[in-house]
Specification:
globular, Peroxisomal Thiolase, Chain A, domain 1, binds oxa(dethia)-CoA, 11 helices, 14 strands, alpha/beta, 10-stranded mixed beta sheet
């Protein structure tokens, strides 16, 4: 049963663009390898003064301004990230202060690439209580890269997205149905193992700046991602008694092009219905679906009354799928978008 809607979208990517050729100057890789294996041509990366909170603020402010909404009307700020401003307090509190969202309760969630869909479910529940919720998906992944691990370091980019979720009043993107899942038996395949209570950050990493490092077994992630994303999409469609042909657009987590193609094949969906801009932005974790949505609306690709399906998979493992109905075009602003 539909209860909430996305009524505004804001997105932000840093102005610094790092191409595959740029990476080939600092590691043993090539534009040809990265393009062929991932479809990625470039990614945006934060400059030194930028942080997760500053990028999140830019996206959140864009979502408010484009809809002429007041930060004082926000009841919740739910911010999902794997790259927080600091351990505590929540990155959402920094954003709350910058926005002057005086009555908003602000909290972070760790959810990785599926985090936006998971956080959206919580926002949907809050909207059932009449709340207005800012959902932010945001990652500054370039500061968590192990630059000596070429198979992982080339995959990611930085960015932030924000959507405002309210009770469904017949406009914006209706959150028609969604399901999210987790399987904690696979935590070792994709993780940032150091700096928590289990493992201190090793001295050699501290010596090089001390940031947490992502560890990923790419092949295993690939296999799980394709299986879980297509399974989740089938389940939400079955729940709604909908045929895949009734879907106008797939708005997937922008993991990499080979994953998107494999999922589309598994679901028998033609690629021209699967939105991808992974070539420009790479994998921006929990920000990626919001950046994709923002780009699609800015390009006028989505029309009123269209049905969208979103799919995501990430660390945890966590994954999910959501069906959205476009009741009217939500105001959208994407700062730094590639033209
Ligand atoms: O939200 C989910 C996020 N996760 C992902 O999107 C990752 C999913 N995984 C993948 O997309 C793929 O597994 C990768 C793109 C990460 C890797 O592609 P692969 O086809 O699985 O390559 P591989 O790891 O099996 O490595 C093949 C070869 C190896 O060389 P040898 O041993 O055959 O000589 C690697 O050392 O490619 C080499 N290689 C590279 N060469 C140039 C790995 N990374 C690179 C690189 N540049 N960046």
């Amino acid at each position: 049963m539909a209860t909430s809607a996305i009524v505004s979208i804001g997105a932000y990517v840093p102005s610094r663009v790092v191409t595959n050729d740029d990476l080939s100057k600092i590691m043993d890789t090539s534009d040809e390898w990265i393009r062929t294996r991932t479809g990625i041509h470039q990614r945006h990366m934060a400059v030194a003064e930028e942080t997760t909170a500053s990028m999140s603020f830019n996206a959140a402010q864009a979502a408010l301004e484009t809809a002429a909404m007041d930060a004082g009307d926000l009841d919740w700020i739910l911010l999902c990230t794997d790259t927080p401003e600091m351990w505590t307090p929540a990155t959402a509190c920094f954003v709350q202060e910058s926005l002057h969202a005086k009555k908003a309760s602000a909290i972070d969630l760790t959810g990785g690439c599926a985090g936006f869909l998971q956080t959206l479910e919580l926002a949907d529940a809050a909207a059932q209580l009449g709340k207005t919720v800012m959902v932010i998906g945001t990652e500054l992944l370039s500061r968590s890269m192990d630059w000596s691990d070429r198979s992982t370091a080339v995959l990611f980019g930085d960015g932030a997205g924000a959507v405002i979720v309210t009770p469904d009043r017949g406009h914006g993107i209706q959150l028609t149905h969604s399901r999210t899942y987790s399987d904690g038996s696979q935590t070792e395949i994709l993780q940032k193992p150091y700096g928590g209570t289990r493992h201190a950050i090793p001295p050699e990493i501290v010596a090089h700046g001390g940031h947490h490092r992502i560890h990923m077994e790419g092949r295993k992630v690939f296999r799980h991602a394709v299986h879980r994303m297509s399974q989740a999409a089938r389940e939400v469609l079955a729940d709604m008694n909908m045929d895949v042909d009734t879907i106008d657009w797939v708005v997937p987590h922008q993991a990499n092009q080979r994953i998107l193609t494999a999922v589309a094949d598994a679901l028998h969906i033609p690629m021209d219905k699967v939105f991808s801009h992974v070539e420009n932005y790479a994998n921006t974790g929990s920000a990626s679906i919001i950046l994709a949505l923002a780009d699609m609306f800015q390009q006028d690709l989505i029309l009123p009354q269209q049905r969208l399906i979103s799919i995501a998979f990430g660390d945890g493992f966590s994954w999910g799928s959501a069906i959205w109905t476009v009741q009217s075009l939500p105001p959208t602003r994407f700062i730094g978008r590639d033209q």
